[in-house]
């Protein structure tokens, strides 16, 4: 079942992200990212639940110009069942309902499996240079 994030879900999302994103820096950890994301954009985090365990997540956002997806994760035991696609479609629907005309996302270079996943969902590689700055 895909549903909006609830306050009691943080430990489950944190455990999921530790499995799915083991190399992420501490600033991207769920206890840091999720509360701040919800403070800025309530309702922008969705989870997938199986019985009483969090098995998937996605965060989405819209800045008035384009939408973004991140934190897309499915526990390995539940992959290949369409859950990731369902999470992406749910986020796409939420963004479309807000008038979002285009969605962007970032994938680590060389992650062929994730690139193929998004290509199956209609996303295309756009030649860009990604830049960032820590504040």
TrEMBL record:
Q: Which residues form the N-acetyltransferase domain?
A: 1-135
Note the NCBIfam families from the entry. Answer: PRK03624.1 (NF002959)
Q: Which GO terms describe its cellular component?
A: ribosome
Q: Kindly give the PANTHER family that the UniProt entry links to this protein.
A: ABC SUPERFAMILY TRANSPORT PROTEIN, N-ACETYLTRANSFERASE
Q: Name one GO molecular function term.
A: acyltransferase activity, transferring groups other than amino-acyl groups
Report the domain of life of the source organism. Bacteria
Q: What is this protein called?
A: Ribosomal protein S18 acetylase RimI-like enzyme
Keyword flag Ribonucleoprotein: yes
Gene3D superfamilies in alphabetical order:
3.40.630.30
Keywords in alphabetical order, please: Acyltransferase, Ribonucleoprotein, Ribosomal protein, Transferase
Q: Which CDD domains does this entry report, sorted A to Z?
A: NAT_SF
Q: Which residues form a coiled coil?
A: none
Q: Which organism is it from?
A: Sphingomonas yantingensis
Q: What is this organism's lineage?
A: Bacteria, Pseudomonadati, Pseudomonadota, Alphaproteobacteria, Sphingomonadales
């Amino acid at each position: 079942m895909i549903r909006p994030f609830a306050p009691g879900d943080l430990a489950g999302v944190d455990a999921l992200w530790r499995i799915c994103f083991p190399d992420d820096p501490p600033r991207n950890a769920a206890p840091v990212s999720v509360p701040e994301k919800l403070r800025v954009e309530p309702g922008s985090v969705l989870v997938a639940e199986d019985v009483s365990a969090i098995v998937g997540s996605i965060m989405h956002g819209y800045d008035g110009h384009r939408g973004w997806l991140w934190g897309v994760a499915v526990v390995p035991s539940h992959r290949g069942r369409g859950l990731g696609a369902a999470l992406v479609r749910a986020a796409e629907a939420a963004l479309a309902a807000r008038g979002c005309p285009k969605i962007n996302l970032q994938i680590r270079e060389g992650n062929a499996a994730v690139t193929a996943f998004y290509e199956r969902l209609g996303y295309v590689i756009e030649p860009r240079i990604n830049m960032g700055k820590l504040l």
